[in-house]
Amino acid sequence: MTTMDQNGLNGRDLRIKLFDLMKSKGIVDNVKTHLRGRLINELRGGVDNQIRFSSSTTQPTLLIRALNALIIDYFQGQRYDYTTSVFIPEANINDYRTMSDEEILRLLNISTESSFYKKIKSNNETNGHTSLLMTMLTCISSWLPGSSQNNSAQTSNDLWAGSVAGSTL
């Protein structure tokens, strides 16, 4: 017979409760990610690999961070937990905070006054929070000529108003 602790839980129930708590706090995923990263590092081995991993301590550019955040958000939205856990150490994301949707849109210089921004926000509210990447691609495809989603004519050129892309397109 198992012994009970002061809260009335036996050893098995306590382990289950502890595991659930650690999983809900993200600790289990962090440990899995760390172990996969170490395993990959060990399997690759060799001097070249050691140099690559030791030289990767520099922070990625803001654009790379934004792209990584978009990819992670998409993976998590699709419940690609394994893929996410492999991608995080590969991209060295453990070392920095991922970016919010608002930060990404600001980085891309998408004006809060543009119809593109408003369409993104509207789609996010309508469809529940899907990934920003999926929402952006949906919005872009609806504005492209020949789109099957939107047959109306676009009369405004403010899709990229105030953005880096707008100044280059």
TrEMBL record:
One of its GO terms (cellular component) is ciliary basal body. GO terms for biological process: epithelial cilium movement involved in determination of left/right asymmetry. It holds the Pfam family LisH_2. This is LisH domain-containing protein. It comes from Rotaria sordida. Gene3D superfamilies: 1.20.960.40. InterPro entries: LisH, OFD1. It comes from the Eukaryota.
